[in-house]
Description:
By secondary structure, this protein is of the alpha/beta class. The chain has one domain (28-331): Aldolase class I (TIM Barrel), CATH 3.20.20.70. The protein contains 14 helices and 10 strands. Strand 2 (100-105), helix 5 and strand 3 form a beta-alpha-beta unit. Residues 60, 62, 64, 67, 69-70, 106-107, 135 line the site of iron/sulfur cluster.
Amino acid sequence: MNEMFENIKRGNFPGKDELISILSTDAFDIDLFNTADVVREHNVGKDVHLRGLIEFSNYCRKDCLYCGLRKSNKNIKRYRLTPKQIIKLAGKAKSCGYMTVVLQSGEDRGYSLIELCSIIEGVKKFDLALTLSIGEKTRAEYKEYKAAGADRYLLRIETTDADLYKTLHPKMSFSNRMKCLDDLKELGYEVGTGCLVGLPEQTVESLAEDLLFFKSLDADMVGLGPFIPNPDTPLFANKGGTFVQSLKMLALSRVLLPKANIPATSAMESLDKNGRIKALQCGANVIMPNVTEGKYRKLYALYPGKICVNDSPLGCRSCVENKISKIGRSISKDYGFREK
Length: 340
Ligand code: SAH
Ligand code: SF4
């Protein structure tokens, strides 16, 4: 094995130049993937944490150029689940045996602060850990969600290249996104961030910066995946990210943050039919099976080719369980907070 990886296994983190060289060639891929798997086994073990994902609204006030939920997309039928429906789905997640529920949506103004807090309280009654992924909010709002019982928050930085960020996110501010992540950390959430891989004009230098950013934030969770061009967005004609480059970014996240919780994302499986299993073997230790029911799954269309759109919550559960046991891994029975 290349000396660089022997060093990494001994606990020396790669620096920017090493990250760039790993990301620039396929020469190190096998060593990288093996190293990430060893680091994962050593730090977080064989357990895979399952987090039930509820996609509760596809309304969004933002206009991120890559995303199918962007407000300018008129080709999408919008839906918003009621608090009662959301809490019922959380109950379903509980009966599937999941210990965590992730509530995700576009940046929807259709729920008041009081409603959101009552949803959080309703979900927490099932004795589940609760992750929110509902975008940029004020510090005061984050504080209220926390007081209502939210444990974790996912907010990808998407890219740390401030110019690229500006191009892709009309009327949004990079510094506010950073501030949100800082606020969440300070308020005591477990914080997840991540990026899109293969954005237009994104360089390996900027991907290396993304990784160093996850490390400097000491992210508790890192969620990343390929950018998949959506035909209903201005970026329809772009190439998008590759599976392998996304896998390398995941493996490097594991190497830099040995104890973090790192999901094998659905977007990875959209590009490779064994994408999530491969991700679990290259550093990942989390899967987020979908708990959204019926037609809403299809309508939550961030990108084309989304997996499992015709499946049911129980169907997803048994499929995922099967895949995990086939590779000799176990399903965690606890909440799966980040081990310090
Ligand atoms: N509105 C919230 C959460 C929902 S979007 C937020 O933006 O934080 C969840 C994630 O979907 C985003 O962070 C983005 O990285 C990803 N996403 C959006 N469009 C995508 C695309 N075309 N390909 C791959 N991932 C995409
Ligand atoms: Fe909205 Fe999130 Fe999509 Fe941006 S990425 S348009 S904030 S749902």
